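User: For documentation purposes, I need each entry recorded in a consistent format: the amino acid sequence on its own, followed directly by the corresponding structure tokens. There are two entries in this batch. Please keep commentary to a minimum and don't merge the entries.

Assistant: Recorded as requested. Entry 1:
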Amino acid sequence: MQIKVTMQLAPLATKFDAFILDIWGVLMDGETPYPGASECLQEIRGIGKRVILLSNAPRQASLVAERLHSIGIDRVLYDYILTSGEASRLALATRTNPHIAALGRSYFYIGPRRDQDLLKGLDYVRTNNLEKADFVLATGVIDDTDKLDRYETYLQVAATNQLSLICANPDNIVVRQNGDRVICAGAIANRYQELGGTAHYFGKPYPTFYETCLNQLKGVAQNRILAVGDTLHTDIKGAQAVGLTTALVLGGILAKQLNIAWGEAPAPNRLERLCTDQGIFPDFALPTFTW
């Protein structure tokens, strides 16, 4: 299957009325905006397009909005943000999902200090004793340099105790602009399942996450919505599962596999081979999210 590689977003803009954009890997690297990303958003908004920002960030959407504002991506550049952390919190708050409703109120936390308040204000109590926990909440690794084996003992004990694990970020890794690769909660949850544990995921690529976005875009024909992301198994697979047209940004997590520097287009056969190996084909590919 041939993938259309477009060097900038502008040629696609007239074909769509709304854009669902991944944040990390498309707009920013987790620390700073990618060159040209904010300007691209300004161009999209300038021609009257609607924009939804979607992220597997394991924190509330309001905190992500504050972070974006601090690095120059202002609130006027998008209509709505949905994060996997927000979705996890909402599920635990409402307990309408029968699997969540069956959970107790005491949880063991795995993740960095910055995300430890995800359930603040809800009727849950954090414990540092796995033997007293009713479930595990994973938002990511404690330190960016951690390897997965740091969490092996925790996961083995939790699996033995038959605790459910709530994964507030289904991504396996995130890639910084300097090339550093950081393990995410998805990798921890996947390992937990390998050990026989039960994991519940909130975020991309799960359909309910995208359906929430589509509810924010009522009145826009589905074939006029473009979903843009940098991962095949989360961004592209998730968007395609709900029938959206997709564009894959190549300069983030996939740059090393494609043997390209940021901003470069890959050899066509290399991109086709990567997508064939994973069985996922975007409609379009962009080296970077620039106008």
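Entry 2:
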Amino acid sequence: MERVPDLAAKLVMLLKASSLSRVGLAQEVGVDKSLVGRWANGAIHPGEHNLAKLTTIFRKHFPALTLADWYREREALAHRIGIAERNDQITDVVMSADGPFAKIVATSAPEIAYKTQTYEGFWRTTRPSVVMPGELFHDYGMFRANDKGMIDVVMEGAGLTFTGWMFPMAGNLYVFLFDPVGRTPLIVLMKGVTLPRATSIEGLLLLSALDTQRTPAAVPVVLERLGDLSGDRDADDRRLREIIDTQPEPLFPLGEATLRKCCYRDVGPIAANEGGDLYMMVSRALSQGTTSNGLHG
């Protein structure tokens, strides 16, 4: 196999642009994290089989990527898959750096700096199934700041892993995720928490259901805190795997009845006439937090 010129720099660029850690990449490739580190620092070149695996993994984030693209010049590769470099304090590599996404990153930067610790931690989601009426689904995941000044999000449920970013803006939280099976984005809009440490967050999830019609749907979603990060990234990655495997209860459980009431509430003209909501909206009541001295609300 012909060696890829400047592979280490290209690999580092793709890792940054996808917000994928070396540990996460190693897990997906099925190799030790030290091997990914040696690829990234240029000490060793991946074999043909692993280069093909890398292409498949990064194609989840950059659908246009092909095996042949590794042999392009670094700048041509970046242009080919739609990323551009920026040298500012927010992020050095982002998608469409001069487009709408860059404006979202820039607008949210002050609140990310101020509110990251409010939301960092391990979380469980509760959401209704679109294709199985009456069933509640749980995802388990983590919010964590990365070294580019953004908040990474990873959620896993029913064998699917969703990755993306969270942006706090104007008192709300905007989460953009990618569904690797359905090959579509998921968007979550949640009401933020004013207290220093969020314990639960309520929002709305917009998705394409995994039915035969890929039906567009909007459903309520509630997140409950499962724990806090340790500050050791490797330890936190291991803890996340434990949480996904063991599915623990939240630190401040809202209870099954409260979750079902939120997820299956009526909306529309009839509900509005009876004091409910005309449209599906976030009630704010379930976006709660605590202070350092234990005040909860």
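Summary note for entry 2:
The chain is about 30% helix and 30% strand.
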